[in-house]
Amino acid sequence: xxxxxxxxxxxxxxxxxxxxxxxxxxxxxxxxxxxxxxxxxxxxxxxxxxxxxxxxxxxxxxxxxxxxxxxxxxxxxxxxxxxxxxxxxxxxxxxxxxxxxxxxxxxxxxxxxxxxxxxxxxxxxxxxxxxxxxxxxxxxxxxxxxxxxxxxxxxxxxxxxxxxxxxxxxxxx
Length: 173
Description:
Elements: E1 13-15, H1 23-30, E2 35-38, H2 39-45, H3 47-69, E3 81-83, H4 99-102, E4 110-113, E5 126-130, E6 133-135, E7 144-148, E8 153-155, E9 159-160
Parallel strand pairs: 2-9
Antiparallel strand pairs: 1-7, 2-3, 4-7, 5-6, 5-8
Helix pairs in contact: 2-3
């Protein structure tokens, strides 16, 4: 992240990209509070919704990330997740980076985080650690957050949504 343009403030950059009307309610209808599903799972549960989310990402978010960071964008449906965080859930994963995800493909990578509910005040959902200080981004539903693979952060724990097995199509870690 040392070569970022001056307009980018580490450890993250906010990207204003409102969700299409109705997307939040459709996601919340599939993913219970405190739950998460991979993009791959969303295709199994509701292919139209997953297509809408992917289209929104590729049309509205990816070009901005590519312009700001100069990185080509790639989406991994098997690890890209939709989470339904809640203010009641205060249990966080341990502090970590996402470098291990990207070590498989390249020596550089970005995580793009797109909450479908307002976060940062009642539902912290994501926190960063920078220079021994904790930073909690405040985002409106549909705003995206892009951060480098070495940004130290933690997210709320979520339970994986049960998805019906489809012969030959499910990839499980």
